[in-house]
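Quick log. Single chain, no ligands specified.
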Amino acid sequence: MDPVILSRWQFAITTIFHFFFVPVTLGLSLFLAILETKYVTSGEVIYKKMTKFWGKIFLINFAIGVVTGIVQEFHFGLNWSEYARFMGDVFGAPLAIEGLMAFFLESTFIGVWIFGWDKLSKKAHAAVAWLVAIGSNLSALWILVANSFMQNPVGYAIRNGRAEMTDFWALLGNPNVWHQFPHVITAGIAIGGFLIMAFSAWHLLQNKAETRDFFTRSFRWASTYALIGALLVGLIGHAQGQFLAKSQPLKVAAMEGHWETEEPASFSVIAIIDQENQENTWEIKIPKFLSLMLFNDLTTGFPGLRDLQEEEIAKYGPGEYIPPVTISYWSSRTMIGIGLLMILVAALAVWWSQRGKIQERRWFLRLLIPAGLLPTVASIAGWLVAETGRWPWIVHGLQKIEDAVSPAITPGSIIFSMTTFLVLYTILGVVGVALMIKYGTSEPALTEGKGE
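-> predicted structure:
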């Protein structure tokens, strides 16, 4: 019944639910813009049909993302008012820009995109598709500018017990942003590609002659898109890990279950974590490999959690500064393991689809239907690493989680609102997924006037 724990659970539940849909929007917005550009440059009407068909999935995700995202704003003022008071001057600016610029750009041009097919020229309509994609991804940028300050505070001064922004351009140029933002965008690309592959695989299994070309092309484009996303998200994630080794070594040490300082540092492949005794009771390690991953050499050492804990105590005073190691460790391995699997699956999909052999691999098409969720699971695991690895800080080095909760909030009010959100979000999620399945498995409009 601790308000801090309840508030954390409530925010985690609503945020993870919201994040089921946001990356799909980011990835599909770019995919649709690419498809429509292909329609304009080639003149092949099938690409217009593909854009319209997959656009329905995009619009469903956009609508659910907007509805579930609004709730996040209220959390700051109700459950986390001390955080809002402390961070408002810094956090408010990027959120305001996201709402006033990026979201209005995105939502305005979505309306133009939906109703402008017969009112705009082909090139003008394709330009609108790109403006929707740019607006969607700019929204992510400004949210991540705010989040990156929580990970790596820059461009501020502490005045009257509050963090006040002193340099907006430092906030925007925060190196954490420019590792985190590309990582999120490429994750969205992978998610969008895998989702369309999954639906296309379902249709190809039906083996209907009249839609075979439509979904073969969709599959070919989606598999290439998914492979690009999977490769880039892995490469950018590797660069981000090397950055975090310097900016948030405790997070990286928790991700690796790395208790003892080693020079060079070994990589833990798999381990049983015992956080209470600050050790791994069993593990398989690769000597020197963590040094190679983090520093591109086989000699550089990396501090362990025990020594990092002592450094934090010396810097910030008594306290527990080691984050939940088990969560960080297994979330990171879930993210990385699924990421490698995604590359393999997408590469096979590209290879067979480009050779015209995908229709013959029915076992593979069946596997691709549940595999559509792989990048979503990896993305959520990645966010668990990003957020839990910062504990006990809500703003790294500036404000602890327990100091950010509203002092007047009661457990009863949190339980009531959390229960209400769970019910409403469950209903909304069922409706959203049902609509995506309905439209994703429906027949495309392949003749003019049908379903236009």
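Residues 94 and 100 are 10 Å apart (CA to CA).
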